[in-house]
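Data's thin. Show one?
=====
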Amino acid sequence: MKRLTAGLIVLPMLLAGPARTEPTPVVYVFDEAFPPFSFVQAGAPAGFELEVLARVLASDGRKLDAKPMHWDAAQAALREGKADVTSGMAKTPEREQVFLFAETPTYVLNIVNWAPDSSPITGPGDLKGRVVATERGSLYQKLLEERGGMTLKLYETEPEALAAMVNRKAEAWAGSNPTARYFAKQLGYRGIEPKAEPLLVSPIYYVFAAGRGALRDKVSDGLEAFKKSAGYLELKAKWSVD
């Protein structure tokens, strides 16, 4: 009788099969101060690129483990394989040797100089001999170093560099135009403006660690499909991304 009872208990377990496991979350490291694309808002991860990625992954049954950090730390985590993906990165030959870029960009970014309204600076050609604030470890730093002839003041985040220029610790700032507009509005900065001539106009992408080719392909395909949806247009409007 005991043997029969044991058999009746085991049989449903066999019929049910193995327990289903949840897919491993995708580890997404991002620049914590790069609005409206990725940042921390009211203590929580936020931004256009974060929400788009979450929607694309959800369509494949995956969840996002979002980790905010300084931009140079995010790049290091991706390089060391401690994360799967980041966003907001422009292509350079050096980066393409290390990382895997999505097929489709998320946005075409204007990298510009901001300076006081009264400044004679009108574009990159006027930076020679000036003190310029920018983010450490960024493409902006690389572009300015390649130009040369100026003194760079490097800060951990774009808003810290922008504040340095506002407080006259630098004569100009270099970085993402949408990011500068966001902080100028949020922090009530007055008397500063973007200069007409950009340093660079560059697409930015989701970027994946080496060995994540399958994930890169899934996100690339999902992004192409999502861009055709009403949900994509809603997120562009929400985050004021043109």
The chain has two domains: 26-107+204-238, 108-201. The domain at 26-107+204-238 is CATH 3.40.190.10 (D-Maltodextrin-Binding Protein; domain 2). The radius of gyration is 23 Å.
